[in-house]
Design goal:
The chain is mostly helical. The chain has one domain (9-157): Endonuclease III, domain 1 (Orthogonal Bundle). The protein contains 11 helices and no strands. It has helices at 9-17, 19-28, 34-48, 53-58, 61-69, 78-96, 102-105, 111-119, 126-139, 147-150, 169-189. The longest helix has 21 residues, at 169-189.
Length: 191
């Protein structure tokens, strides 16, 4: 298994090898291009030397924020997103022993249980949790019963709705086209 989300081999390798990086990338995936969000964990690691939840949660918030602000910034909203990443990491330390993969591996959970666990994380609402569950099922080897149904519509086979469906430059283009169409539909639906 190898993820191909960012177009940067080093960033994709970190996402593939480090479940926390993948979870943080998903957290950062708002109001920035997907590639920028999912390249964020590599920038964090390169700038802070931290690649695990306990190290990130324990960093001085001001120093962590400075790492987010370095050019190119980790996110267009460095202040709020740096705080969210540290809050997420602290939750992982407190509830999951710092192990992001425990969210989908501890106790052999099914899809609905993983969705519940994801939605309990700070910064993960219904949609983000469903997209991440679909990503786990489609590309990260999660096989818990009911993951497709729990992540619907993002778990649908052959769909190009989200980061869960990006496996190549062509699939990235299809996901972008779907997102543009959804935004256009939303604009025309507004009074």
């Amino acid at each position: 298994m190898a993820l191909h989300i960012t177009g940067d081999p080093a960033a994709d390798e970190l996402l593939t090898d480090n479940p926390l990086a993948l979870l943080v990338g998903m957290l950062l995936d708002q109001q920035v291009p997907m590639e920028t969000a999912f390249a964020g964990p590599l920038k964090i690691e390169q700038r802070t030397g931290a690649a695990d939840a306990a190290a990130i949660a324990g960093m001085d918030p001001e120093k962590f924020l400075e790492a987010f602000k370095q050019t190119p910034s980790v996110h267009r909203f460095p202040g709020s997103m740096a705080a969210r990443v540290q809050t997420l990491c602290q939750e992982l330390v407190d509830s999951w022993g710092g192990d992001a993969a425990a969210l989908w591996s501890k106790g052999e959970p099914d899809g609905p249980e993983v969705l519940r666990r994801l939605k309990a994380l700070p910064g993960f609402g219904e949609q983000k949790a469903k997209i991440f569950l679909a990503l786990l099922g489609k590309q990260y080897g999660f096989t818990g019963d009911g993951w497709r149904e729990a992540s619907a519509p993002y778990g649908d086979d052959g769909a190009y709705r989200s980061v869960a469906d990006i496996v190549s430059p062509e699939s990235l283009t299809k996901v972008r086209e779907h997102k543009r169409a959804m935004k256009a539909a939303a604009k025309t639906a507004k009074p």
